[in-house]
Amino acid sequence: MAVLTTVVCAAGTLIAARRVVDDVPRVQGVSAVLSGTSDNVENFLLVGSDSRALGDPNTGETGEVTGNRSDTIMVLRVDKGDGSASLLSIPRDLWVDRAGHDSKGRINSSFNDGPAALVQTVQQGELGIPIHHYVEIDFSGFKALVDALGGVQVCFWYPTRDFNTGLDIPVGGCYILDGTQGLAYARSRHYEEFRDGEWHEDPTSDLGRSTRQRAFVNASLQTALAQVKANPFTTGELVGAIGSSIRIDDELDPIGAAASLRTAVGDGLLTYSLPVVPKTIDGNAVLLLGDGAESVLQYFRGRGPAPAPST
Q: Which domain holds residue 273?
């Protein structure tokens, strides 16, 4: 959605963009659970939906796997005062009170109960973040979007790989990743670097993946903005690719949201992660909120000042 609103700001594309936006599928039942209008912030829940058609993100395997999973959960916060924007990653293994359940569970399991349940889970309990709009992108659409951008540049310090997703960077350096490579990078939980003559796997697993995802989203936004500024007449493909890959709530007007996001995208996003601690509960390896999480949450709730951004 953030990339779409960036692209449709280009001169001469609004009419075509309006046609695309009118055809974007709407998620039924979500609008009824969204928070009311806020005076100071507007929050978008961004969900990467894993239909399992491209393989399990942990193993890379395809097969008889039922249900969808919210493989990526982020909150995009737009400040109504100064127009700045911030992006928060919510770990999918975060152990929370789930809407509609009497027991806690991993937050990504709420998506199995539908988008509305996930929105309610984020808004209640430990997180308590008001959500004003919902945007969902599927992974096949993610590939099409990156390809429509002509790829996104990512720099690697060392040779890098992930056998599960197919990520394979033979030599350190900066690369333009196409859709398939970008997806392999964004989904990588078993991220390995070749240093000092040995392969070292990122010990932070899903947390490291969240950091890379935030950086990739920011790079995608900057790529889209630079492309539109350089040649506004090539944005039709971008608008079409983005519009065909997302689902949004009934209330969201992406073109109207573009005005509030345009300046923020140009300035770059502040990115945040939630401080968490690992724990095993009933045999489940999960994450609990740690020290410092409350200040981040208060900021995204619109009740506190901006803490120092995460790396």
A: 2-149+230-301
Which tokens belong to 133?
């709009």
Give the count of beta carbons closer than 10 Å to the beta carbon of residue 8.
25
pLDDT digits (tens, 9 = 90+) for 263-286: 666 666 788 999 999 999 988 889
The answer to whether 152 and 179 have CB atoms below 8 angstroms apart is no
Whichever domain contains 13, its CATH number is: 3.30.420.590
pLDDT tens, 66-109? Answer: 445 567 898 999 888 888 889 899 998 999 999 989 889 999 88
* pTM, to two decimals: 0.81
Residue 32: φ, ψ to 5°: -65, -20
Q: Contact at 8 Å (CB) between 265 and 84?
A: no
Distance CA 74, CA 69 (A): 14
Q: Which residues contact 148 (CB under 8 A, 6 or more apart)?
A: 237, 238, 240, 241, 242
Is there a domain that residue 135 lies in? yes
Task: Please state, in angstroms and rounded to a whole number, the distance separating the CA atoms of residues 202 and 29.
Answer: 39
* In contact, 182 and 216? CB cutoff 8 Å: yes
